Amino acid sequence: MAIIPISRIVAFWAGQQPDRVAIDHEGAQVTWAGLEARTNRLARAYEALGVKPDDFVTIALPNGIEFFEACIATWKAGATPQPVSSRLPKHERDQIVELGKPALVAGVAPGEYDGTPCLPVGYEPDASLPDTELPMRMANSFKAMTSGGSTGRPKLIVSKMPAAWDPETPYLEIPLQGGMLIPGPLYHNGPFVWAMVALFKGCTIAVTTRFDPEKTLALIERLKLDVAYMVPTMMRRIWGLPEEVRTQYDLSSLKALWHLAAPCPAWLKECYIDWLGPEVIWELYGGTEGQGSTTIQGTEWLTHRGSVGRPVETCEMKIVGEDGKTLPPGEVGEVFIRPLEGPGTTYRYIGAEARAIDGGWESLGDMGWMDEEGYLYLTDRLSDMVLVGGANIYPAEVEAAIEAYPGVRSSAVIGLPDEDMGARLHAVIDRPDGAVPDADMIAHLAERLVKYKIPKSFEYTAEAVRDDAGKVRRKALREERIAAMGTTSA
After folding, report:
1. What is the DSSP letter of 234?
2. Interatomic CA distance for residues 152 and 449, integer angstroms
3. N or C: which terminus of the chain has fewer CB atoms within 10 Å of its end residue's CB?
4. From residue 6, how far is each of 36, 185, 198 by CA, in Å?
């Protein structure tokens, strides 16, 4: 097998396994032959609406077959899918559409954006459009993902990998014509990449709308899935099931369970290694930008407890101190990554600049150290970003929304320890006129933020939470509240 344009991959697998299930969404299924025909017609509809090669198509659809069809139709039109949350408040989505200038927005009401065609959820193209194969097209980028950015303003991370793939290339332990479980939101980079690479390799993909611990185990058993994508919060919720419930399902088909997007407590990882076997448990550390990553299998982790692995063969990493010098093994500093093909070869930003040092080394904002063997151990986030259930939340974005409320002078959003989600958002609000009912503040924020970015608790003060330079004492605020809770930081 050789590299195939993504626009042709569904046709390839439809020829090999036409009647096999391509996507299962909570029992609703589409075969490879059906997926090929439906996306040919949809791609023609997109082209008729003005989508051209290398345009962006913003996809604001929930998890489901329709999301996959929109991405595949976009590739068939030679364009680049640009996923966003289907539950994104209009204010936030408007900023992304303004930044990306897409040729089409799928998943919103017609007329939402003047001059840009919009298609609603459940859109069906004209049945008179042919469902036969289209001319071969290949976008210069196979994805353009969204990030909140440390400034609180969104940015697009446009992959420099063209829309083509060799299905036989070993990748993420995903077998040819296997089965993949995706219980996470497809607009996030991790679930998107695992799902789409599985698609390119001819797998059946099982995707869920929301994560449910027991239903997840039942799904692995029902479809005999080989690979699962998870974040530690999902793993924790599965482990929280009664043992007789958790162990009643046959998971013997599972060859790889990947966890990423947030730190995994060592005790939880050990539980999964004991339960499913060390060869099944895999971890990846990296960013959407794709400059590089580390991976580690459970078998290695047992001899390098706490490590996120060694750099993969396409990149190099180093630890840098505050003085900008490379640190020796065992010393904690900022983690920097560089692709072997050179800086700027894996992505480009729209709406931001890369944070780089001399030589094209870039940081994802993490602190850590490396041992003598080159294994990386992460210690903390350098940035203010808070990880909640595997989702990146940038305080600046939440604070800007809070400060739009009448009478609020300034605010600081911090992450406090949470057993289930890893962290929960807490807002310290400087409002001289006093507190407002939680329901009022939540209603205000719901107009501006997706639900998971809304703080779980609010605290009001008449004292400034920023110093004269406008800086937030975020670390001190967090430590004071943790001390008051009588807990220790994770």
Report:
1. H
2. 11
3. N
4. 12, 22, 12
Quickly state the pLDDT bin for 148 (edges 50, 70, 90): low
Average pLDDT of the chain?
92
The pLDDT of 344-351, averaged and rounded, is: 95
Q: Are residues 365 and 424 in the same domain?
A: no
Q: Residues 327, 454: one domain?
A: no
How far is it, in rounded angstroms, from Cα 157 to Cα 143? 8
How many whole angstroms separate alpha carbon 309 and alpha carbon 83? 29
Question: Does residue 137 contact residue 184 with C-beta atoms inside 8 Å?
Answer: no
CATH number (domain holding residue 64): 3.40.50.12780
* Residue 405's CATH number: 3.30.300.30
* Tokens coding 161: 């990998």
CATH code for the domain in which residue 302 is found: 2.30.38.10
Question: Which one-letter amino acid corresponds to residue 213?
Answer: P
C-beta separation of 168 from 193 below 8 A: no
Q: Is 148 within 8 Å of 234 (Cβ atoms)?
A: no
Domain for residue 356, yes or no?
yes
Lowest-pLDDT range, 142-151, 154-163, 190-199, 431-440? Answer: 142-151
Whole-model pTM: value is: 0.84
Which residue in this structure is represented by tokens 């003047």? 114
Q: Please name the residues in contact with 210: beta carbons below 8 A apart, sequence gap of 6 or more.
A: none
Contact 334, 366 (CB under 8 A): yes
pLDDT on residue 156: 97
Q: What pLDDT is stored for residue 386 in this prediction?
A: 85
Q: Report the chain's C-alpha Rg in angstroms.
A: 23
Q: List pLDDT tens digits, range 157-179.
A: 999 999 999 999 999 999 999 99
Domain count, the chain: 3
Burial 265-301 (b: 16+ CB within 10 A, else e): eeeebbebbeebebebbbbbbbbbbbbbbbbbbbebb
Which residues are within 8 A (CB) of 467 and not within 5 positions of it... i.e. 6 or more apart?
Answer: 473
pLDDT in tens, 353-367: 887 888 899 998 888
SS3 label, residue 298: helix
> What residues make up the domain containing 403?
386-485
Residue 347: is its pLDDT beyond 90? yes
pLDDT over 70, % of the chain: 96
Angle formed at CA 271 by CA 265 and CA 275, multiple of 5 degrees: 145
CB 70 within 8 A of CB 193: no
Tell me if 276 is assigned to some domain: no
Cβ distance 172 to 192 under 8 Å? no
Which pLDDT band, with edges at 50, 70 and 90, does 468 fall under?
very low
